[in-house]
Amino acid sequence: MSTYWPWWAGAIGLALVTINHTLITDRSLGVSAAWDRVLHWRRERRLERMDEEFTDDQALAEALAAATAEHFGTGTDASNVPQVPYGESQPLEADAESTASERPAATSVRPAPLVTQAALLMSIFLGGFIAAVTSGRFHLRYDMGPGFRNLVTADPTTMIAVLFVGGVLVGFGTRLAGGCSSGHGLSGCGRLRPVSIVATAVFFGTAVAVSFLLWKVI
């Protein structure tokens, strides 16, 4: 008998976590991005303090306009008037205002607060720890188990080297793909984003192929 949850219970749990995270934070769920921000927390705190000065889009637009006027001057001569290509009419102010209103707010594309992503990572750790303890399966180990020893290596030094190189490749891949399995597979596919669907198909297909090679061929 397996002590793991059935697949449908795990699917419901992951769906609830993803939906609640999106509703509470108004951001997509992503673990690799959270790790990157938490590891560089000093830089992120500086960026957050800068963002706090411009929480209002109108205030940000006014500050940018003031900085532009200070740098380039406030003259009203013809050189400051944007040129319109021949045969095209000058856009009406109402059209410009309607276009600006249709743009997404700047606050909607800002990352989640740093403390939120730190809480997400701590919750993953604590959740796994509590689940292992309550199920009676928690114990400290210094290897990857018999499957890893039989398929890859039983030498501790080689194991550490392989895991280190694998971790670097995983980190490089998640940054190259713009997200990890949680960001693309859960949040991205849940929102039907084409790039996430393609990315999820690629890394799950690669995982299936590598597993087949390890277990059936090698």
From TrEMBL:
Q: Does the keyword Transmembrane apply?
A: yes
InterPro entries per the UniProt record, alphabetical: Sulf_transp_TsuA/YedE
- What this protein is called in its record is Sulphur transport domain-containing protein
| Name of a matching Pfam family | Sulf_transp
- Positions of the UniProt region annotated as Disordered: 74-107
Q: Give the species.
A: Streptomyces albospinus
Give the UniProt subcellular location, in the record's own words: Cell inner membrane
Major subcellular location class: membrane
UniProt KW keywords: Cell inner membrane, Cell membrane, Membrane, Transmembrane, Transmembrane helix, Transport
Q: How does it sit in the membrane?
A: Multi-pass membrane protein
Q: Is Cell wall biogenesis/degradation tagged as a keyword?
A: no
Lineage, please? Bacteria, Bacillati, Actinomycetota, Actinomycetes, Kitasatosporales
Q: Which residues cross the membrane?
A: 6-24, 118-138, 158-177, 197-215
In the record, the note on similarity to other proteins reads: Belongs to the TsuA/YedE (TC 9.B.102) family.
Q: Which domain of life is it from?
A: Bacteria
